[in-house]
Amino acid sequence: MAKLTHLGGLLAAGALLLPPGRAAAQIGAEAQGGKLTTWVAFGLDKELSERWASVTDIGFGRHSDPTGDLNPVKRQGLFVLTQDFIYRLSPHWRTAISVGYWRRNSYQEDAPYEASQPNEYRNELRPFQKLYYDVKFGKVLFTNTLRADYRFYFTPAFERWPTPFEFRAREMVNAKIPLDADHRHWVILNDEVLTASDDYSAGTAEKMGHQWSPYKLTENRASIYYRRSFPEHQLDWDIGIMYQYWRETQQSAFNTSYNLMMDFIIK
Question: pTM for this structure?
Fold first, then answer.
C-alpha cells in the first residue's frame, strides 16, 4: 500500500486529472454481526461546483445468526444514513466533512440469539472526517482514504449507552479497474483496516477498572465488486462480496463474516 502511494506520487506530474467528487465510489457495507450478511444501499452523488460535491447514502442490512443458520436475511441488522460534503484540494487530494446516523439491532450472544432487552437496538450519531489521495496508474484508479470516526452511542430512548463514545481510525485502499474502453464494466478492489478505543460510562469504567479500552485493531474488510455503469442514465450498479475479520474492542478473539453487497448510485 505504501509502495503504491509512493509510486503514485512519483507519477503525479504525468497523471491525468481525475474526475471530481469520489470517482463514483461504491457504498461500502457496514459490520453487522452474524456469519452471513446482506447489504443494499442507494446513493446520490451531486457536483455542487468545480470543487465541491455532495454525497448522500442510505443503506439497509440484515444478517444470519453467528453460527449454524446461514440465512443472510434472517435478522434485522442496520439502517444507515450518511451525508458527505467533499472538497477537492488539488488534482490528487480531496477532503470531506461528514455526518451520519446508524441504527444497529442488538442480539444476545448465546442461542437462540433473541433481541437484547431492554435495548433491542442502538442509536449512533457519528461525525467523521476523511482525507483522500487519488492517482491514476495506467488505466487503474487508486484511492487511499484516511478516516476518523467520532461515534456517540445511545439507547432506543436516546439515553447514554454503557459505552457512550468510541474513537475509530480507518485506512482504506481502493482500486478501480476498467474492463472495457467505454468504462461501462469495472472490477473494484477494496481493503480497509480499522482501529478503535472506547470511552466508558462511569459505571462501566468502574466495572472494567479503566476509563478507556485499549486502542487496538478491531477489523479488516476486504472486498471485490463488479460494477456496471450506465452513463446515459448517470447510474452505477455494484454487486460484490466482502470478507470481514472483526472483533469488538472489549474482545480478544476475532470473528469472521461474509457480506453480500449491492448498491445503486445516481450521479
Answer: 0.87
